[in-house]
Amino acid sequence: MKKDINHLICNNEQFLYRQARKIALSREEALDLAQDTILRIIEQEAKFDRNQNFKTWSTRVMRNLYINQYNRRKRYRVFATDNKDMVHLVKRIKNKGEENLGVEFLENAITKLKKPHKKAFQLFFDGYDLKEISQQFQIPVGTIKYHIFEARRVLRNSINREMAFANYK
């Protein structure tokens, strides 16, 4: 049985890479996706029906794997919206001490937010969908958007004040 799946993988390796290339944004990401798909196929070999087309099944495995990875990455969003804001943060951090101070400052700024803004922002930052947050609070999606907008505005102002105070501007 193992020999069969290995044979199928070897014969379709280029096909898997081409499929990954269609889905992924970069060459490296496509290589990673193809490798992850091969690993997943080996792990899930028992679920493969021998009467089914291997290419169809492996493409579905790859697509599901990519969607899971995409959703996982989506949870780690950064609330800075402009690339120039991110460049300032990256250029300014020179060692772990400065980085720790920045993280500590953000954590303090988040704890000072008003309660509804803080809770909505924290859930959004953790990767929850607006609809899920509104269901949890039992308030309209528009109100959740307002809370998140206000939290981001207050945090942005706090960061700008801190940067002005530290003479970063």
Description of the molecule:
- This protein is mainly α and 169 residues long.
- The chain has two domains: 73 residues, Rna Polymerase Sigma Factor, Chain: A, CATH 1.10.1740.10; 83 residues, Orthogonal Bundle (Arc Repressor Mutant, subunit A), CATH 1.10.10.
- The protein has nine helices and no strands.
- Helix 8 crosses helix 9.
- About 6% of the residues have low confidence.
- CATH class designation of the largest domain: Mainly Alpha
Q: Regions with pLDDT < 50 over 5+ consecutive residues?
A: 84-93
Structural class: mainly alpha
CATH topology of the largest domain: Arc Repressor Mutant, subunit A
Range of strand content:
under 5%
The total strand number stands at 0
Give the topology string: H per helix, E per strand.
HHHHHHHHH
Number of helices: 9
Can you summarize this structure?
This protein is mostly helical.
Secondary-structure topology with pairs:
Elements: H1 2-11, H2 13-23, H3 27-43, H4 54-74, H5 83-92, H6 96-111, H7 115-125, H8 130-137, H9 141-165
Highlighted features:
Rna Polymerase Sigma Factor, Chain: A; elongated; Arc Repressor Mutant, subunit A; 2 domains; 169 residues; mainly alpha
